[in-house]
Design a protein that fits this description.
With 394 residues, this protein is an all-alpha fold. It contains 14 helices and no strands.
């Protein structure tokens, strides 16, 4: 059983790498998105705002049912079904239609929601509580290795093979993961315990009244949320408009952000699970570092200082790495039968926040959006300190 669980976990890690690539690939695609806008005769500002964020709005809204479906019917059925939908949605984006482009991106966001909540359920069912932050750190590290590929390497790939070549590879990968999940997963959900979808879904209502659940999710928005919105959408606009960087330089700077996340996440997982045995101090540190990073980014804009910008990006990546304790904190108080549902509530708040932060920048500009990100970081820091409770020891 242990070996089978590890193999399944590896497959879920690969699935999350695919999901994360979809999430952040638009971060270096300003040129392609503007090309779409010209081809389809639409305002490029609107497409830059809503094409990247369509994934995040869909991802957030699907949390209302995805976690409950996974808890009720299991990773085997729901996971395989959603990965198949992701493959079809990716192929849909290749059709020469603006409606197909937006619908495909939206459905990718819907289907992608299964991976993180499904992995958290697998972790809760088959691994010890002292491994939850380590597993989450491996998950996010895998995602950000994929995120690294979605920076300069993707920029080079698109220059040679175009978007159609990229989407073909992503669709094939999704269908492969679909088959592997169906063959390897054996979790069929809580129905075998007599817990139906209504009972499991009702847990969302309980979570919406929990201060701890809100504060943990908003703490994640303050660090991972602000960083991901920057990485996946509006950071390219800030760096090209304020500093005059070309598309290749932008992709390299975003690679530094992703790399700092990749290097810090596994260390944080071990620190939380095995060294200090606590979650809350790490999440407070995440929000503190995020706040400092946004101060540096704002200063870089005001002073036109490239070193300050680079320092801010590196610290932003570190804050994202520190946040990996938040998903375990979100599910640990509520039991393994509701692990995916609790994770879904966490993601609902987190990815709604990301979508909003992505959508506002084209209309308010990079300086105002940086100030908004700083405000969110400070708010998250206050709420985490005041409302969250320590979950590993409890």
């Amino acid at each position: 059983m242990r070996r089978a669980a590890v193999v399944l976990l590896v497959v879920m890690l690969l699935a999350y790498g695919l999901v994360y690539f979809h999430r952040v690939m638009t971060g270096i695609m300003k040129e392609e998105i503007e090309g779409f806008a010209e081809y389809y005769k639409v305002d490029p500002e609107y497409l830059l705002a809503f094409f990247p964020s369509a994934y995040f709005y869909a991802y957030a809204l699907s949390q209302l049912f995805m976690g409950s479906l996974v808890d009720t019917y299991g990773v085997k059925r729901v996971g395989a079904l959603m990965m198949g939908l992701m493959g079809l949605s990716t192929a849909l984006m290749m059709l020469p239609s603006p409606a197909a482009l937006m619908l495909g991106r939206t459905l990718v966001g819907v289907s992608a929601a299964v991976v993180f909540v499904g992995t958290q359920r697998v972790a809760s069912l088959y691994f010890a509580s002292s491994s939850q932050a380590i597993i989450t750190s491996l998950l996010l590290m895998t995602g950000n290795i994929s995120g690294l590929l979605a920076t300069y390497p993707l920029r080079v790939f698109l220059s040679y093979y175009g978007l159609a070549g990229l989407l073909t590879i992503l669709a094939v990968f999704a269908f492969t993961i679909m088959v592997l999940v169906y063959l390897l997963a054996w979790d069929v959900g809580t129905r075998k315990k007599g817990l139906g979808l209504r009972e499991v879904w009702g847990k969302l209502g309980h979570l919406s009244r929990e201060k701890h659940a809100w504060a943990t999710a908003l703490g994640a928005v303050a660090s991972y949320g602000t960083g991901t919105a920057f990485q996946a959408a509006w950071g390219q606009d800030l760096m090209s408009r304020a500093f005059g960087y070309d598309k290749f330089t932008v992709s390299i700077l975003l690679m530094y952000l992703a790399l700092s996340f990749v290097l810090s996440a596994p260390l944080v997982g071990v620190l939380s699970d095995r060294v200090i045995g606590r979650r809350k101090p790490v999440l407070i540190a995440s929000n503190t570092v995020s706040t400092i990073s946004w101060v540096l980014i704002i200063a870089s804009l005001l002073l036109r200082s490239s070193p300050l910008l680079l320092a801010g990006l590196v610290l932003l990546g570190v804050s994202m790495g520190l946040h990996i304790v938040a998903p375990p904190m979100a599910k640990e108080p509520y039991g393994i039968d509701y692990s995916a549902t609790a994770t879904s509530f966490f993601n609902l708040v987190l990815f709604t926040g990301i979508a909003v932060l992505q959508s506002t920048e084209p209309f308010v500009g990079p300086l105002a959006n940086s100030a908004l990100s700083l405000t969110v970081s400070l708010l998250g820091l206050v709420l985490v300190a005041a409302w969250t409770r320590e979950t590993l020891r409890s």
